[in-house]
Amino acid sequence: MKMDDPSNFVSGTEYNVFVYVVGVLFISECLIWMLTSKRTKNSSRKSSDKGTVWLVIIGWCCCLTIGAFFRGQNVPELMRNLLLPHFSYYIGVCLIVLGIIFRCTAVLSLKGAFTLSVQTTSDQYLVKTGLYHLVRNPAYTGSIMSLLGVNLAYRHILGVVAAFIICLGCYGVRIKIEEKVMEEQFREEFIQYCIETKYKLFPGLY
User: Fold this and answer.
1) CA–CA separation, 170 vs 121, rounded Å?
2) Most buried residue, 57, 125, 165, 201, by most Cβ within 10 Å?
3) Of 49, 54, 66, 57, which is closest to residue 143 (Cα–Cα)?
């Protein structure tokens, strides 16, 4: 399995664009990790993560590479050729970029409240403006958009389906635990927020 295999793309230009945008995706996640890791380890924060940070990390890595796996030479040819139309590549690249912007904007909106694991503090406040007025978990929305975009760029049907299922499972568990903690922390305010902003990830869908 090789993510950097140009033969998976129609032209060298498409391959280079894909490499660049995935590189930006990876760099943005590393920056988020570095900028929030100290905050995450803060002993004054109450952790209720239950290991979901690792579930999300593993799911993220799987989704990033699964498209390359299905396009690899070790996969039977019949399965390897289950490809989407060529325009899926362009949709995928756009989704990666939009997902990066969406996630970074959501993280910046939370400022000091954002952590990699599920944590709360006594002075924490509930953010309900900006992207958080559209959906309750926009940072995860951004990640899912980018990961689905990667697999759409690879154009493999099974890659897109597998990425969708992995995202639904990993982020679904994470959101369930996180929102339970938020309800315990903010009580009526969070319940009212869920009524006003009823979608967890995608407006009009979920």
Assistant:
1) 24
2) 201
3) 57
